[in-house]
């Protein structure tokens, strides 16, 4: 389901936004009981917006070339007057009082948010097994996980329910599910997309990004949501972005591609075979020079990530206390501390509790310098590793995940093993650079290959990803 082709059919009046949206709803109603990607579908509101889009197209007054395209929304991105529960019991009943900047940008182009997509609670997880409401299935094998935390966003696209969706990536939460579900997922440069209206997990890492079946679809959605936002001080001014982009290679011919071969130990045979085929293809088709590169501090990526992310999570989630909004426990006394404890105990799942405890410990008196302070120092070394590598090569190519999607329950009892699912994605997040996962050649379950580039090189890495579709065309799952 290619987003650009659908949008072009709308403009040519070959199919109307209402007709297409009804087809999406029919597929959701028919198959989502198997996949369980959606927590809620906003059918009436979406159809009303589709009718308005259809009228604009008929009058030649389209808001953009993408007017009428439906987009699924991860449950941690606020939409005014709609539920936004972050797949958590503690936010049950919460109605968003405002919309995220990305939602406003979608609507300004005539694009239509159609519902809430399932996720790991508060975006904490790698399998969408941590949702308080349901377990999203991988459309390519219903016994396997779709990845996480944006599992619902990835599964909805790969199931053919809709052409585009939004997720959020903290340490791999777009790229890893894109790899498991066989679609394209982009983590933009940190600061290129506003986080206003995104429920915070780890503020220095979180970034909203797109899912699509093609790199072109991901590009369309990224360009719509990107840009400076006065309500988010971490967004990058356009002048700074342009300065960075001026240094990025524009010609795909003669690319220098770095392969960190020292990171490939423990990668499954089928993933390594897919990577090898991609290397051969890019060398031949783009006259690319493949160079072995070193990212010496990436081996510390997982411990650094889980100290930084969990420390920030413990601070960000302190606001969910049963007082200001969300679930409030019923207690027999009027003790405030007891109310906090009971509400958070009832409202948070086990993975969220685990991360809050780890983060609180890392920030506690006597341990701050030993853990959080040290993690920030190593994070800077990881950034410097990428800076050094990008002086020698244009992009870095490596697998997105060490293996194909694992089965439900395989890693639930071993949190460390679950965390290692992100071993190849967290360092790009720590460095703030863009990275895209694109389906690699495979005869079996989907495999994701990851292209990482310098800051604000989204256009370059997406063009490479689009070229890779000639090697392997992503396929919507057969349900």
Describe the overall structure.
By secondary structure, this protein is α/β, with parallel strands linked by helices. The chain has a domain at 3-245: Amidase signature (AS) domain (Amidase signature (AS) enzymes, Alpha-Beta Complex), CATH 3.90.1300. Helices cover 39% and strands 11% of the residues. The chain is built from 16 helices and eleven strands. The chain has helices at 3-11, 17-35, 43-58, 101-108, 151-158, 175-181, 215-225, 238-245, 269-285, 301-316, 336-347, 350-363, 369-389, 415-419, 426-431, 458-468; strands at 38-41, 70-74, 112-117, 164-169, 184-187, 207-212, 256-259, 289-292, 395-399, 435-439, 448-452. Strands 1-3-2-4-6-5-10-11-9-7-8 form an eleven-stranded mixed sheet, with helices on both faces. Strand 2 (70-74), helix 4 and strand 3 form a beta-alpha-beta unit. Helix 10 (301-316) packs across helix 13. The longest helix is centred in the last third of the chain and has 21 residues, at 369-389. The chain is globular.
Under CATH, the homologous superfamily of the domain at 3-245 reads Amidase signature (AS) domain
The percentage helix is 25-40%
Beta-strand content: 5-15%
Number of strands: 11
- Distance, first to last CA: 15 Å
Question: Kindly state the mean pLDDT as a whole number?
Answer: 96
The quaternary state of the protein chains shown equals single chain
Major sheet: size, sense and barrel closure?
Answer: 11 strands, mixed
> pLDDT below 50 for ≥5 consecutive residues: which ranges?
none
Top-tier CATH class of the domain at 3-245: Alpha Beta
Instruction: Tell me which CATH architecture of the domain at 3-245 applies here.
Output: Alpha-Beta Complex
In spatial order, strands of the major sheet run 1-3-2-4-6-5-10-11-9-7-8
What form results from the Cα inertia axes?
globular
- Give the ordered list of helices and strands: HHEHEHEHEHEEHHEHEHHHHEHHEEH
- Rg, Å, rounded: 21 Å
Number of helices: 16
Task: Please identify the structural class as seen in this structure.
Answer: alpha/beta
Assign the CATH topology of the domain at 3-245.
Amidase signature (AS) enzymes
């Amino acid at each position: 389901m290619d987003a650009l082709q659908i949008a072009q059919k709308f403009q040519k009046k070959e199919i109307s936004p209402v007709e297409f949206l009804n087809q999406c709803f029919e597929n959701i109603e028919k198959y989502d009981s198997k996949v369980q990607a959606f927590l809620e579908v906003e059918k009436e509101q979406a159809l009303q917006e589709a009718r308005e889009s259809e009228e604009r197209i008929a009058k030649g007054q389209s808001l953009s070339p993408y007017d009428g395209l439906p987009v699924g929304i991860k449950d941690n991105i606020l939409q005014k007057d709609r539920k936004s529960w972050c797949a958590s019991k503690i936010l049950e009943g919460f109605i968003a009082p405002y919309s995220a900047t990305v939602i406003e940008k979608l609507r300004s182009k005539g694009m239509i948010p159609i519902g809430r997509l399932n996720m790991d609670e508060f975006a904490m997880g790698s399998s969408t097994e941590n949702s308080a409401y349901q377990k999203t299935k991988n459309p390519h094998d219903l016994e396997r996980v779709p990845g996480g935390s944006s599992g619902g966003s990835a599964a909805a696209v790969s199931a053919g329910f809709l052409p585009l969706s939004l997720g959020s990536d903290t340490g791999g939460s777009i790229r890893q599910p894109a790899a498991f579900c066989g679609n394209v997922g982009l983590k933009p440069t940190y600061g290129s997309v506003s986080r206003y209206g995104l429920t915070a997990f780890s503020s220095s890492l979180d970034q909203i990004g797109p899912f699509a079946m093609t790199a072109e679809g991901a590009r369309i959605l990224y360009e719509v949501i990107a840009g400076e936002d006065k309500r988010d001080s971490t967004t990058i001014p356009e002048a700074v972005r342009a300065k960075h982009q001026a240094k990025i290679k524009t010609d795909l011919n003669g690319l220098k591609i770095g392969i960190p071969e020292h990171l490939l130990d423990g990668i499954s045979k089928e993933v390594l075979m897919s990577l090898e085929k991609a290397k051969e293809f890019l060398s031949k088709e783009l006259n690319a020079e493949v160079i072995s590169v070193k990212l010496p501090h990436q081996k510390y990526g997982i411990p650094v990530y889980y100290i930084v992310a969990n420390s920030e999570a413990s601070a960000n989630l302190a606001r969910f206390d049963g007082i200001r909004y969300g679930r409030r426990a019923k207690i027999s006394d009027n003790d405030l501390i007891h109310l906090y404890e009971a509400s958070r105990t009832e409202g948070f799942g086990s993975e969220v509790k685990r991360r809050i405890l780890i983060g609180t410990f890392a920030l506690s008196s006597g341990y701050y310098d030993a853990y959080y302070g040290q993690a920030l120092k190593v994070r800077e070394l990881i950034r410097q590793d990428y800076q050094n590598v990008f002086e020698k090569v244009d992009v870095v190519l490596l697998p997105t995940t060490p293996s194909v999607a694992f089965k439900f329950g395989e890693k639930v009892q071993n949190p460390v093993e679950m965390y290692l699912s992100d071993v190849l994605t967290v360092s790009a997040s720590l460095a703030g650079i863009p990275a895209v996962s694109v389906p690699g050649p495979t005869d079996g379950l989907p495999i994701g290959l990851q292209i990482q580039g310098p800051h604000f090189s989204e256009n370059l890495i997406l063009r490479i990803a689009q070229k890779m579709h000639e090697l392997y065309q992503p396929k919507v799952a057969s349900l």
